[in-house]
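Input sequence (244 aa), recorded before submission:
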Amino acid sequence: MTLNHLRPVVVRRYSAVRDRHRQAQAVSRAGGFTLVELLVATTITGILLAVLMSFLGNQLRANATQNARAELLLDTQLSLDVINRDVKHAAKVDASNRWADEHAPDGPSDPYSWTSDNDVLVLASPALNSENEFLYEDPFAYITHKNNLIYFVTDNVLYKRILPADEAGNAAVLTCPAQISECSDDIMLAENVSNFELVYYDAEDMEVDPENARSVAVTLAVTTNIYGRDVTADYTMRSVFRND
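Predicted structure, token format:
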């Protein structure tokens, strides 16, 4: 067979191969992606997912932190409301407790070792009977018997202790540290306390010693840990003594 006879055969075979190649390319484009395209798409998708997850995680942490701070602030306000109510009904701040407490800081050897200062508040509060009537020491001068209400922090917990006046008919109930059988447990007002601070003022708004105070500013801060970060809420309330 001569060269001229072979040429048409070669041309036909080349055309057939070219057509099949073009058809394969068309099918590839219509039905899928190349490996490189898949790798690029996967990489971009991974980056977008990482960004999205980071954003969502930050939002969740921010919401949890905000909710925790709001709850802590509410707790501090409720605790200070109790102190505020007691201060408004109290006659004064006692320099130290007037009623013996064997569980005082230096008790039982010194049962009068509670001292009002910048982190302990000892109130002289009117004694009441079961009908919520005042028990008078001098009814003509309207001077009542006084209980001691003591606010203090131990192991990051804010407590209220009650030392009742030794007077018949006094409705106040003695409290002391938990798990002591002869008295009720101290009243727990707040946990995770990071700061409890007291500042005392006279009628002219000057800072004075506790026993000369006409009002007291109480600051309470509570801290918790959210996602490895400390979240703190603090609140200050100032209260004036109303009863003599």
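Checked by second reader. Residues 35-89 form the longest helix (55 residues).
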